[in-house]
Amino acid sequence: MHSITKLATGLTALALTMATSPVAAADPAIPLDPVQLPGLAAVQNLSPVVQQAAANPASAQELILAAASQLAGNATTPGGSAALAEAVTRFVQNGGAAMGPVAPPAAAVATEQAATGIAHGTVPLFTPGTGNGPIPLPKHVPPAGVVPGAEAHLPTGINPEHAVGPVPEAMPEVPTAVAAPSPAPAPAAAPTAAGDPSAAVAPAAAGALVYDPNTPPTQDFLYPSMSNGCLKDGGNVIATAISVAGPAAIPTPGPGPGQTAYVFTAVGTPAPAAEQKLPLNVTWVNLTSGRSGSATLKPNPGINPDGPTTLTAIVDTGSGSIMSTIFGQVTTTDKQCTFMPTLGSSVVP
Description:
Strand content: 15-25%
Number of helices: 6
Structural class: alpha+beta
Largest sheet: 9 strands, antiparallel
């Protein structure tokens, strides 16, 4: 009851402050400085596009690629945002290979063609158009007195002595490689008694990749999230987001095969409130299979129960290349915090 009274008092004081301060009322909900967040423009532009792509997964590649390419190619886009947009473009192009090539956005192509012309070798062969295949050779002009198509002849300027190509020059002598002596065979391991628990286990083959579900590779999101005034003293909070492809033992209870776990941690905050008043959502789209969906991240008693506030979700994304965006609000024991969206690209085996 004391905490509820304290929260109500704080909300009342905040309402009175906003009512008597027109400047505060006119400020945006999250006044972030774009100079300090060079990738903010890309995140704010591409997060809604990922949500739109999830609602229309059949056109997900085209939607994301068009938005990212346009953002990366805009001269007014900040460098950090352009780099993030280029990373998204590369991921969509590579991740979408299984579904066929994705055409670049028409607007970007038209702008580039108007400035530089159609680049040769940038579109498939045998496709109608002047920009296909390698750079064309100069037009052949027969020598004077030669009837085209009726007489065999050499192109103008070619010496008949070199008609079959120039005389090859002497090749430099290449030293003969000497095979290294083969190493002596390793001595055979001593036989062990059947059922002996102390028997040695043969090491894995050199170069073999061993996947351990207890220590799976985590895949960081492309950009951190941030909340203004999320700390008790009014300080800002940076949040990290990662994804973990299953099968894995973490985060508990662990994603299974074809599943993706999302972990969102608000660095420096206290423990999460038992009740999350407004949701923190993840929306994802599988660029390989065309599946998509959304889920709400929630506190996990097995992860940072005493803080920092950490919310998780495990979803059935299926195997493939996944584009995700996390956005929404987090309720800590001190504050209700709105976080800017963040983007993630991950691969599920």
